[in-house]
């Protein structure tokens, strides 16, 4: 019988971390095999060793061991052995063998994804140091997948939860190198990728995007940093001229502390910790989503957690959310493609200017502000590029 459920590839990640634990706990839910066909890229022997550390009712979990994703068995937990049984397990420790195993699982899953044998990819956490080799010279999953699936374009690291969606201009970059990565062109590209994902992947019509500043107090009009005036504001204005509803730059502390993030569909942070600290402070069970790819890839929003490995205390919630989100994204992309088919021809009104009206400037930023005043943005009247300097 033909399998009509989406086939979801799951790469096992670092074998010495909590990857196997969260995967096996997550897919133990009978509902999973009712809505998709999971395929674990790992090793049955290693999986069994991890099951020995888990609750007794899970230890008899059955796998449909297959040679290829072409042979998937619907209704079963499928598993492809991609590294040998002899791979040494050292739970809670980083080892070269674990890094090599995590690469084998990831690369095999990506190959099947390229061939269309699976429909989406959920990645368990890797150790970014021990996975390094001649075949993997990347700072993380995102950069590796961008090379394979971005068609030469931009990808976007996005953290997703019920509270917010946070995307990054700079992903895994040293703080000392962040300023040189912040360019007008880069910000504009990220805003385009973010808006496209919000439209296509999340079905949000006319999404509103907040752009964070780089410096404290958004630079205080150049007093403690000029990136806002020279780079970020011009990028927001360019995005506005391209039809993107982008606002900012906002000082990150006041923006999150005051709850203003709730007024936006997504947030573009300048660097990793600026966006991920507030995100994870609100929800540690979110999802890491790589937008801008021609495939669907999600992941838990945490790392290998060696200190929790082998103790049967790791929560599978973030992994489960990543799995369900991958299925939802597949459906939404299909719906978006259907909606976009054969659009009606658009004719520009003669009384409407072909380009956006000239930007009125940011003179109001020089006016004194009251740092305790609630300055929740009025989206109907607020010009793109507007700053909340009091934050």
Description of the structure:
It is a single chain. By secondary structure, the protein is an alpha/beta fold. The model is unreliable at 361-391 (pLDDT under 50). The protein folds into two domains: 1-155 and 290-339, Isopropylmalate Dehydrogenase (3-Layer(aba) Sandwich); 163-282 and 358-391, 3-Layer(aba) Sandwich (Isopropylmalate Dehydrogenase), CATH 3.40.718. The longest helix has 23 residues, at 317-339. 32% of the residues lie in helices and 14% in strands. The termini are far apart. It contains eleven helices and twelve strands. The radius of gyration is 23 Å and the shape is globular. A twelve-stranded mixed sheet has the order 3-4-2-1-5-12-11-6-7-10-8-9, with helices on both faces.
Keywords:
alpha/beta, 14% strand, disordered C terminus, 2 domains, Isopropylmalate Dehydrogenase, 32% helix, 11 helices, 12 strands, 12-stranded mixed β-sheet, 391 residues
List the helices and strands and how they pair.
Layout: E1 7-11, H1 19-27, H2 30-35, E2 37-42, H3 44-51, E3 64-66, E4 78-81, H4 96-114, E5 120-123, H5 141-149, E6 156-160, E7 165-168, H6 178-181, H7 184-200, E8 208-212, H8 227-241, E9 245-250, H9 252-257, E10 266-269, H10 272-282, E11 287-291, E12 297-300, H11 317-339
Parallel strand pairs: 1-2, 1-5, 2-4, 3-4, 5-12, 7-10, 8-9, 8-10
Antiparallel strand pairs: 6-7, 6-11, 11-12
Helix pairs in contact: 7-8
